[in-house]
Each structure stands twice: as structure tokens, then as C-alpha cells.
Amino acid sequence: MSYQLELRHLKYFLAVAEELHFRKAADRLFISQPGLSRQIKQMEDDLGIQLFERHNRKVVLTPSGEYLKAELTRNLKNLDSIIDHAKLIHDGKQGKLEFGYVGSAMQEIIPNVLIKFKEKHPNIQFGLTEMDNQKQIDNLLHQKIDIGFVRLDTVPRGLTIQPILKENFCLVLPKNHQINSQNFKSLQQLKNESFILFDPSYSPSYYEKVMQIFTDSGFAPIVSHNTIHAASIYKLVENGFGLSIVPKSLQLGYNMNVQFIELNTIKQHTTLSVVWDEHNRNPVLKSLIAEINFKNKKHPNTGCF
């Protein structure tokens, strides 16, 4: 069977599938509604498939339409990526990488990676977006980003994960708190304090690991606030709303009136890992992975302050 379809027909279909309204889709495409309706009807006739159910003013995708929408969305994204790379090569820019990352990766790890990579690949463009662990995984699976920096122990099949930094946790207190690095013995001293923690939705596995620290210390914490940003945590700690526990690397890059005490005697550690889709065909990704120094290394022992 021969299908007389062009790329524009697929884009017409996706516009209607997303809007579920022929007039709105036509406006979006800058064509007439009758013209769009004819194109979609011709597409259905050529394929021998009903893609939409039309009920007066209501438009609903058929099961075949739902499937076609999902597949075309993913594959046209790949096509857009191919065309973008071709344009970058033509312009002498060579390529682009989209990064996702948790906030702590931006303190030292990602800047170091980018500086090293730029030395050998000066014309590469980078897109950088902070996002939680699960959103990075979703975006990697849908090839919306090329590489992620996460705090996860496992990832779905098809993704590759490799540790890049293993580090201790640090206790965060106001600088004027009665407990400091000289008289701190254990978290038991702080069992009646409130704690401000990263929101569990940001990384459930990370949150569970932090909660295990409290369990091993013999008490359940009073959690007064949850947030997703380190700066918010430090501002709340600074103003006496509670204490916190964060990865050691999050000491860097902030100038707040707080103190850090490294929890170097507990069994819990946190690992920052790099994750990517092994089927990603972005030619720049392979070069970047080859440049990254993967190993279970401890964060430089500069001490907490």
C-alpha cells in the first residue's frame, strides 16, 4: 500500500490531536479550518484508519489516533534533533548537549566537567536545567535531555548510571547555635530541634536515606519545613526556623550565616551519579562521557565550617 503522506500531514494531525479542536488547530497552523479538516480526512482515507471521532463540536482521538500521536511525538522530536544538529554542524558549532541536574551538582562537579570539555570542544553549546531526579529520568527517557546528574541508586532499564562523587552529609545550624564543631557528639543532642529537609518528592530515595540517619540516631525528627532549594533551607536555618542535613558539596557557593558540621562517623553517605540513555544518538554525548572522570571518590576533605 502506498501512502501519499508528507511531513506537513503529520504536523496537521499532531496539532488537532493536541488541541482536540479543529478551529484552534487551524489557527495554530495558520490555515483554514475547512482546509485542515480535508487534509485530516484525506490522511485517514489514505491510511485506512479512523484517527478521530467527531461528535458535533467535540473531537476525540480513537485508540489508533492515541497510538499515532504518542509515536509521532517521540519520533518527530528525534527528527527535530537531527535537523538541529545538521544546522549546528553547518554553522560550525558542531553540536549541543542538554543537561539536567540536581542543585548540588552545579556547585563544583558540572562547572569542572564543562571547563574540561570546552578545552577540547570549544564550539559545543550547552543547555542547563535544574530539575528533580524523577523529572530528569522522565526527560532522559523521552530524549528531552541528553545527560542527568542525579542522587539515585537505580534507574530504569535502558539508562546507564555511573557514580561521580561519593560524599558525607553535613549538619547545618545557625552560626550562633549552642552546638558547634567543638561540642557536637551526636544528633541525639538535637532530638528536640526542628529540621528543614529537602522535599521527599524531589528525591524519595534521598529523603529515605536522610530519615535513616535519624532512625540510627534513635529518634524521629520534627520536620517543620520541606523545600527543594538549598538557599531556602539555609535562609530558614539562618533565621532560627530549624536545622538541616545536606550533602557536603552544598557548603560551596553560598554565603549564609550558618555553620556546617560534617557527619563523618555515620554509615550513610550520598552519591551523585551521571545518568544517560545508552541509545541516545547525539554525537556529542559519547565524547562527553569519555571525558568525565567516573569513580567513587570522596569529596575533597576541606573540612566543614
Topology:
Layout: H1 7-19, H2 22-29, H3 33-47, E1 52-55, E2 58-61, H4 63-90, E3 95-101, H5 109-120, E4 124-130, H6 133-141, E5 147-150, E6 159-167, E7 169-174, E8 194-198, H7 204-216, E9 222-227, H8 230-238, E10 244-247, E11 258-263, E12 270-277, H9 283-291
Helix pairs in contact: 1-2, 1-4, 2-3
Give a description of the structure.
The protein has 305 residues and is of the alpha/beta class. The chain folds into three domains: 7-86, Winged helix-like DNA-binding domain superfamily/Winged helix DNA-binding domain (Arc Repressor Mutant, subunit A, Orthogonal Bundle), CATH 1.10.10.10; 93-165 and 271-291, D-Maltodextrin-Binding Protein, domain 2 (3-Layer(aba) Sandwich); 169-268, Periplasmic binding protein-like II (D-Maltodextrin-Binding Protein, domain 2, 3-Layer(aba) Sandwich), CATH 3.40.190.10. Helix content is 38%, strand content 23%. The chain contains nine helices and twelve strands. It has helices at 7-19, 22-29, 33-47, 63-90, 109-120, 133-141, 204-216, 230-238, 283-291, and strands at 52-55, 58-61, 95-101, 124-130, 147-150, 159-167, 169-174, 194-198, 222-227, 244-247, 258-263, 270-277. The longest helix has 28 residues, at 63-90. It is elongated. The N and C termini lie far apart (72 Å). This is LysR family transcriptional regulator. Pfam families: HTH_1, LysR_substrate.
